[in-house]
Amino acid sequence: MTKEKIVLAYSGGLDTSITIPWLKENYDSEIIAVCVDVGQVEDWEEVEKKALLSGASKFYCPHAADEFAKEYIFPAVSAHAKYQGTYLLGTALARPLIAKKLVEIAHLENAVAICHGCTGKGNDQVRFEMGIAAFDSEIKVIAPWRQWDIKSREDAIDYAIQKGIPITSTKEKIYSEDENLMHISHEGGDIESPANFVNYESVLKITNALENTPDEAEFVSITFEKGLAVAVNGLKMEPSEVLSTLNHLSGKHGIGVLDWIEDRAIGMKSRGIYETPGGALLMEAHARLESLTLTKETIKLKQMISTEYAELVYNGQWYSQANLAIKAFMDKTQECVNGEVQLKLYKGNMLPYSVTSPNQLFDEDVSGFGEDDLFSHHDARGYINVMTLPTKIQQRKGMI
């Protein structure tokens, strides 16, 4: 009799590694491990080998870094999406794409369920399951952390040792890390308590601590077409190349490190350390170009809508009607966001150097102090009279 199949969102980390033997014990099913390449640096042959040694019967690795950059990261950059005005959503952006790939492979393999290794306290369980539901609302979802007797990462390590599963996590260094093209997040261990000092040099992976950054500044130019970064320092690049190049340049100068206390989707506060060097630089450059090419009213609308957009993405609603509507608005705003931005990188700072655009709304004749054919200094008198009228009336009535 053929066994049923379960597709597992596999990373090769502690949680998903121990999930394979647990699933086999509790479901007597064939486990299909799926590790989606969203730009993380991995030896994919070793990841596959580990999955199979842990008990998976098959391994898939969809390489989706360019899709991730073009269809998920770049729209978030164009929207200037920052959750609570701070976090650049690196993990949240990857989850809907991974969910999409999981469903595709589940359908290909005729699997009866999809399993993820998210804890019951985190955001990713919501993001994965909302993403899965967007493509298959009927398929069963298995979440071991909401079922098994393992209560902590220390318990998980003990279980891995018991089952002979090779892991890199130790009880002394028990950080949970998530890496993709956009960022690397670090949580757990001594990071958890906001009262603890964390030595960044021992935690950061792609970003230099400020003490280790070069003493010489470096200049970088980014070229945009319709809001999308297409070249770095004059070299045309694919979307994933843009991010990986900027990660290297920015990481060298200590840019994009966030040590932050956030409000999770399920209501609790948590502390995390995020490295988003390339994403931070890209968003800064994009905002600089928009300041030159968008009207005041458009910028204001974007700022208002961006807050809601970031909330939707953080809470896993990438495929929601509201989010798709916002994306359509954002796409419209990008039609004239063309040009080149140069920034100076130094000791964690991104300093403006120059910005040029064929669609710039800055007009030197109009904005200068001299006369021009569009605006006369005398025109300001009527404008001020109209704008101050309510204030004058209030003053006459003794209301101010």
TrEMBL record:
Transmembrane segments: none
Gene Ontology molecular function: argininosuccinate synthase activity; ATP binding
Binding-site list for L-citrulline: 87, 123, 127, 176, 185, 262, 274
Key words, A-Z: Amino-acid biosynthesis, Arginine biosynthesis, ATP-binding, Cytoplasm, Ligase, Nucleotide-binding
Pfam families (alphabetical): Arginosuc_syn_C, Arginosuc_synth
Protein EC: 6.3.4.5
Enzyme superclass (EC): ligase
Arginosuccinate synthase-like N-terminal domain segment(s): 5-166
Broad class of the protein's primary localization: cytoplasm
Binding site for L-aspartate: 119, 123-124
UniProt pathway: Amino-acid biosynthesis; L-arginine biosynthesis; L-arginine from L-ornithine and carbamoyl phosphate: step 2/3
GO BP annotation list: argininosuccinate metabolic process; L-arginine biosynthetic process; urea cycle
Annotated Gene Ontology cellular component terms: cytoplasm
Residue ranges annotated for the Arginosuccinate synthase C-terminal domain, each copy included: 175-393
Keyword check for Nucleotide-binding: yes
Family to which this protein belongs: Belongs to the argininosuccinate synthase family. Type 1 subfamily.
NCBIfam families referenced in this protein's UniProt entry, alphabetically: argG, PRK00509.1
Assembly information from the UniProt record: Homotetramer.
Name under which the protein is recorded: Argininosuccinate synthase
Organism: Desemzia incerta
UniProt gene name: argG
